Amino acid sequence: MRLLLVEDDNHVAAALSAILARHGFDVTHARSGEEALQALVPEVDGFGVVLLDLGLPDQDGYEVCGKIRKRTATPVIMVTARSDVRSRIHGLNLGADDYVVKPYDTGELLARIHAVSRRTVHEDATGSTETVVRLGAVRIELPTRQVSVNGSVVQLTRKEFDLLALLAQRPGVVFRREQIISEVWRTSWEGTGRTLEVHVASLRSKLHMPALIETVRGVGYRLVAPTAQGAG
What processes in GO biological process is this protein linked to (predicted)? Predict the structure, then answer.
């Protein structure tokens, strides 16, 4: 995924870019609001997420966010030391998709990046909207939050759907327990681990595909992409 990092501190940007690169992101660094806006040309930008620091040298970060939203639908995550509720609400009202307060945990930041990118509706080259994830016999319809296996609809709870949609985002990739808890339950790991295990077990049972979600001992879970006849 291409990511636009808007950060005027070169040392912070370099360290964060290195971390993001290790997690598979192609990072473009903009040092000011104007650089960010120049990079976000709708027909060519191709960015999956904008990570926007609010303390910019040339423009107020909130103002930049508003301009970005008028220019493109690319998800924006604000990063700032301003932790008060009013500042968060103001940022969200301007069109930000999420808000991360400094100092932040890198794992949480990565989880939030994946979360906003997953919620985004992408358009393919023909202009059609891709809103369905297909994994062998499993079909996940994102707008209607409907899941079916071999054509038969499976009734899932909200959290079960969110969990499945998260894992289906990157089949074969291991999601850490802490990351899953952060994205699906919007809370910390402590006291929620058993809830995650129960939801995984429920998904395996409801989908009649016990091998679909693999436990990676000591780390987390990953989705094993099934064949078209994988349900049974």
Answer: regulation of DNA-templated transcription
